[in-house]
Amino acid sequence: MTQVFHTKSKVIITCNKRLASYLQTEVEELGYDIVRTFATGVELNITLTECIKLNLNLRCASQVLYSLKSFKAKNPEELYTALVAMEWEELLDFSGYFSVTSNVDNPFITTPLFANLKVKDAIVDRIKDKKGIRPNTGSDANKAVVHLYWKDNDADIFIDTSGETLSKHGYRKIPGKAPMLEALAASTILATKWDRKSPFVNPMCGSGTLAIEAALLATNRRPGLYRMNYGFMHIIGYDEEVFFAERRNLKDQVIKNIDLQIIATDLSEDAVDVSRKNAKTAGVDQLIQFEVCDFADTHVPEDGKGVVVFNPEYGERLGTHSKLEFTYKRMGDFMKTKCKGYHGYIFTGNPDLAKKIGLKADKKIEFYNGKLDCRMLEYELYDGSRRPESERPKRHDQTKL
Question: Per residue in 151-184, is it b (16+ CB within 10 Å) or e — as a string?
Fold first, then answer.
């Protein structure tokens, strides 16, 4: 147990549904070999120290979980017995604080809170027996976090090396109305044909998440630049120099003096103000041209064949259907008349409204926004004759899981 930072074990990197293919590409680009990919994540075999790099670099992930032990447990009593035998005093500071999360599907458990309590009891009893002091516990994930996965009789106990979720990238201090989660925004951009050099146009920008994530991708700014606390920092044996060395690497890898056009507009002055503030926190406000205007008046550069990306209201929480039907039709008209030569994208959770766009989608890319089944509709907006396949930008294809 004392050598977890240098011992290879099963590591599960989780993500939201339909993001696994983008997460897989990210992990492979960082130089890691993937054991398997599944619907909500990927599995690796690495040390806890290697998890530090993953936590700082990944855009599409939620948690990085390092397995301590796999075991059989039919009921809560067997779970407790297996966990109280583990050397928790060598992992967790007995004068510190830890929390427990879980993913449980067991016939003896009616609420995951009960499973969490059994895990806490086992850890606390073990540390109190060995050290004579009871560690503090609670629901906050800002210190050490232990995660239980328990399905039927099979259990896995993990150190959650992330703590707070990685799906929030740390710069969005003001979320705005119905915001898109940062990990989802990054994944949708990775799913487009944008080359990170040509114009990126984002009408209806809301709180600016898509435009900001585009700027972060283009300049290779990683989420670890905006965060200074992770779960791995609260495990005995943590070497802070590894963290700071990786963080220096992140700073060195930032692309500066980039020639790039990112345009973000919204009819709401408050939304644009929020977007500017979030972009400033992310350090990319100078790269984004913000403007208050109707989306139809958004400037689309004529000298570059880029992408235009909409994330309009879906009619679930905001707006009304009669107004939105006209809005969706106007989006189609805008792309047909002002975005020739571009690739257009509309992210929506409402298939009925999508029919009002008036354009035939070349591709429908599947996502979830929360629990809402969504599609990102892709349109090739031809300028004159259709371009040969060899001249078209390559895209990140989503593999089927």
Answer: eeeebbbbbbbbbbebbbbbbbeeebebbbbbbb
